[in-house]
């Protein structure tokens, strides 16, 4: 006679952000027969610690800081209040520094564009840039002409 294998009960514990993906993968692999959790049949889900939300927020902030800064692994004994204060201070300083970095990066980009424009103007034979003062736009036309008289006629009325 064929008997089914004896089943064991397991509890899947994971952060909410990963729980659905873990359950879906176990279900897809057909390794578990999954039923909705009922507290009367096993361990209770439990309650989060009093400061769990604050600690979770601090961990997220700390992880963000860790990605932007170099940290040495170390241990320390800090209260939640001290950690929150330190993380908030460092986070604020990092935010200010990142804003300044962006401002400097934008300014550098503007200066590079100006330099490129000046180099182009100089390559066109204009060495004294002061002759361009007062102009909003400067157009450069390059080409060959067959008759200077026709060019002079076409340019009548333009301030040359």
Task: Describe the structure in brief.
The chain is mostly helical and 160 residues long. The protein is built from four helices and no strands. Helix 2 (52-68) packs parallel to helix 3 (80-123).
Alpha plus pi helix count: 4
Overall 3D form:
elongated
Which bin fits the share of residues in helices?
A: 40-55%
SSE-based structural type: mainly alpha
Rounded average pLDDT: 79
What's the total count of β strands? 0
Largest sheet: none
Instruction: Please tell me the total number of domains.
Output: 2
Indicate the radius of gyration in whole angstroms. Answer: 35 Å
Enumerate the spans where pLDDT stays under 50 for 5 or more consecutive residues. Answer: none
Order of helices and strands: HHHH
User: Strand share of the residues?
Assistant: under 5%
Amino- and carboxy-terminal Cα gap: 107 Å
Provide an overview of this structure:
The protein has 160 residues and is mainly alpha-helical. It has 2 domains: 39 residues, no CATH class; 106 residues, no CATH class. Helices cover 51% and strands 0% of the residues. The longest helix has 44 residues. It is elongated and about 110 Å long.
């Amino acid at each position: 006679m064929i008997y089914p294998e004896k089943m064991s009960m397991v509890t899947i514990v994971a952060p909410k952000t990963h729980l659905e993906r873990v359950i879906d993968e176990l279900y897809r692999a057909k390794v578990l027969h999954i039923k909705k959790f009922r507290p009367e049949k096993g361990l209770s889900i439990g309650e989060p610690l009093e400061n769990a939300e604050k600690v979770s927020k601090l961990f997220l902030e700390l992880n963000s800081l860790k990605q932007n800064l170099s940290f040495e692994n170390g241990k320390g004994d800090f209260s939640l209040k001290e950690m929150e204060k330190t993380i908030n201070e460092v986070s604020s300083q990092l935010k200010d520094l990142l804003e300044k970095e962006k401002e400097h990066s934008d300014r550098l980009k503007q200066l590079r564009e100006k330099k490129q424009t000046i180099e182009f103007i100089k390559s066109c034979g204009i060495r004294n840039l002061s002759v361009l003062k007062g102009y909003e736009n400067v157009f450069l036309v390059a080409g060959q002409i067959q008759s200077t008289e026709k060019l002079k006629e076409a340019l009548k009325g333009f301030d040359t």
